[in-house]
Amino acid sequence: GAELAEVLLHGEPRPVDTVEVTSAVHDRTVVLGSVYAGVDALANRHANHARLLRGAASYYAGAVRAVAGWRAAGYRVTVDGEEHAFSGYTVVAANSGYYGFNRLVAPSARVDDGLLDVVMIADAPRRLFFALMNELSTGAHVHRPQVRVLRGREVRIEADRAIPYGADGEVEAVVPVTAKVLPGALRVLC
Questions:
Q1: What is the domain count for the chain?
Q2: pTM for the whole structure
Q3: Which domain holds residue 58?
């Protein structure tokens, strides 16, 4: 209450970045957080369609279901014109560090730096992937050899099959998808 009133009365507008999403489904749709393609988008899809569970419980159940049936995708990720190919679980183009239920997927991402942090998680044994998922609470996963983080202004994600992607939680789409940062496109009170 009081903190909000203080911000509303005396806060200064601050520019933050947004992300423009382009695909067969999204025609320059703007999101704030991230675009992610792979097992995490599949987990989110399962969670959104869960009938019995809600909130974090539905996401965890969706994640177990998604990982259990996942086979590594062949990704081609182009960051500012430079192509990177790998086999793995997911690619996240993150404007902010967090996604999902308070998961710190990109610890160094900042909403005001004009860049996306691109987190690529390569193929690994399922048991290792579950350990990595637990590390998302602290961001420690980025130190694993299966995780690579790049930075750039424009990211195109393609795969060897029609894998789902999400854009700030909306997951009824498949790759290819392009995420482009729009520096300082939104002003927020702080």
A1: 1
A2: 0.87
A3: 2-189
CA 40 to chain centre: 8
**3-state SS class at 96:** coil
* Strand-pair category, 34-38 with 177-189: unpaired
Give the distance between the most distant pair of CA atoms in the chain: 52
Q: Is 172 helix (H, G, I), strand (E, B) or coil?
A: strand
Ramachandran area for residue 184 (φ above 0: left; ψ -120 to 50: alpha; else beta): left
Token couple for 116: 């996306």
Judge whether 59 and 48 are in contact, CB under 8 Å. Answer: no
Scan for tokens 């160094």, then name that residue.
108
Phi/psi at 72 (nearest 5 deg)? -50, 140
Domain CATH code at residue 143: 2.60.200.40
Eight-state DSSP code of residue 100: T
Query: Which pairing describes strands 34-38 and 73-79: parallel, antiparallel, or unpaired?
Result: unpaired
Rounded Cα–Cα distance for residues 23 and 79 (Å): 16
Q: What is the pLDDT of residues 133-179, one digit of tens each?
A: 788 889 999 999 999 999 999 999 999 999 999 998 776 789 999 99
